[in-house]
Amino acid sequence: MTNVSTIIGRLTDSFGLNLQLFGLTLLFSLPLGLVIALCAMSRFRPLALITKGFVWVIRGTPLMLQVIIIFFAPGLLELGAPWGSGASARFTAATIAFIINYACYFSEIFRGGIQGVPLGQAEAGQVLGMTRSQIFFRVTLLQVIKRILPAMSNEVITLIKDTSLARIIAIKEIIMMAQEYTAQGLIWPLFSTGIFFLVFVGLLTLLFARMEKKLEYFRV
Amino acid sequence: MQRKLLSLLLAMMLLAAPVLSLSEDSDLHYVQSNGKLVIGYTVYAPMNYTDADGNFTGFDTELAIAVCEKLGLAPEFVEIVWETKEIELAAKTIDCIWNGLTITDERKANMEITMPYVKNAQVVVMKADAAYENTTSLEGKTVVAEAGSAGETAVKDDPGLQKAEYIAKEVQTACLMEVSAGTADAAVLDLTLANAMIGEGTDYAGLLIVDRLAVEDYGIAFRKGSDLAEAVNQALMALKEEGLMDQLAKEYGLDLAF
Predict the structure, then answer these.
(1) What is the mean pLDDT of chain A?
(2) Chain B touched by A57 (CB under 8 Å)
(3) How many beta-carbon pairs below 8 A join chains A and B?
């Protein structure tokens, strides 16, 4: 009926969707997370409070539910179809939900990293006549990157596995594809999906180990 | 602030759902202005599936394409998750659920469902020469069905079959093997599957369907109050007259409901 190479081919294709969702989420949630972190630390109290409330809501509700709400709410509220139609609409909605969710988690890691840089450094910058943004970009930022790398690697590894949550709105990622075979009574495809994730996380782990090593000269 | 917005959003969603279903706009006009009918399905042979050559086919697939042609709409098939099919419909991410949907009273209360177009049932299969009058004929005999299947439920719900010795098998097809080998007297399984697997030209040519239990009808579901259901009913009747429905039913081994 169906041969092994066809099944592995289809699983590999669908893992491409997991990887796309992973890549797009990282690309947009990292800068957005930094913006959210800066807003949460803002000296303008209302902005800081609203941002913290937002982070609380996003971190306090399941990602799966957020994906469902972002995809279905516009239609249920009769706001038209902002995501378009067909498979790409689902993917767009899921990507946006993932970006917002991960940006909030990243923002807390960034905040911890930024506040962990000794105050003396900023004071030294002030003495040298640097502006606040100069101090942030030229003194603080790179040290923040080194400090947050281990925490980031955790989140990034979680992200690739979370991408399979997108199947809740019928995005045919690898696990949903494998379940098509489970329904036919063929169960090995489902278990084999673990190998795809394992290999990818292995690569990520090596990459992060390398990055940490590169930033090692940054001992403070 | 943000919290208030969110609770407002959630409240609106709860309120919007029933309002939507009472919407007076014609659903037919809505899909006509889109020029397409978005059809929600899950992969489920013989209704909607991809064959060995990679073509998307199946009874419901071919029938939906034919109905859309009658209505002057382009069919757009969208794979959905079965558990959220009602939300998909209400959110207009799909226009209908067309996937061997069993008509139930609950579903009729919440959705606009067409007339039954395909019949399914749990059937009793025995050797062609076996004596059978009704389910009480099987008292004390051995009956097999798949564990956890609708067939098993039918066995447990039937007063006659309750008195038979019941053996649960891991798959429906193994039940036929038992009857064929004489290790069981009767098997209870899906009509669709039985049609496809027994009778002339199959490995189980000596088996017959002797009874039908738990008959159920399949229908196509639209948003509550939608005038599309009636339009699709008309198209189905026209296709029945043209002979296409019978041709498809034969090809996929299904029983039509009309």
Answers:
(1) 92
(2) yes
(3) 66
